[in-house]
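LAB NOTEBOOK - FOLDING QUEUE
OPERATOR: T.R.
BATCH SIZE: 2
PURPOSE: Compare the predicted structure-token outputs for two unrelated chains run back to back under identical settings.
PRIORITY: normal
REVIEWER: second-year student, initials M.K.

ITEM 1
FIELD SEQUENCE / FIELD STRUCTURE:
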Amino acid sequence: MKLPPLLVYTVLRLLAFLVPLAILWFFFPIFREFWWLAAIFAALIGTSISLLFLRAPLSGASTELHERRSARAAERQRDEDAEDEATGQA
């Protein structure tokens, strides 16, 4: 069973944030006191990791979203054409 690319990308992005947060929290005692600073650093590290290493999952997720949106637009156009034909409009 293949997982949806958007789910894979979301989980990897969460891991890219949570793993550095856990490392900062457990191995650097100062970040236990300043938890907000650990969250900021973890967000910066997670963003850097995702920019460097998650290009392929991002591409797959955006391709899937584009295909879904295109299919919806095509379905909407078919519905409008059918309504125009039924009402006799051209």
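ITEM 2
FIELD SEQUENCE / FIELD STRUCTURE:
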Amino acid sequence: MYLPAGLTDMLDGPVARHTHTQSSAGVRLDSLVDLAFTGVCLFRLLPLLHPPRWLTGWIAGILILRLCNLGTGLLRHKRLMLLHTRANKLTGLLLFGLVFLLTTPYARPASALVCAWTTAASLQEGYLLCRGKAR
């Protein structure tokens, strides 16, 4: 079920743009579904990884940073702001690909790399939200 859900999530935006059926409500719904999809995958897959405490702490820190970004968007822009930056899109792709490495010896190093990228993407998003450069 993971593979079809991830693939359809990646394709819905390009298909909507190509068929000229995109809408502002669709963009907001897509962002909420992305958030839910990531949360469910993390909740379901994290136990399979048996992460060390440092990795669990890092993931918790990213979650706090993302929640702060949501709060910043709500306070500063008076609406839910989930930015579709290139960095955030690549984060989603990396998280999707990480699943296929969970049963390999590369799971922990790959998880650390994904966490590093996600931290950078979250910091960029926070910067854009604080500076008012959010679209």
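REVIEWER COMMENT (ITEM 2): The helical segments are 2-18, 24-49, 53-77, 86-98, 107-131.
FOLLOW-UP: none requested
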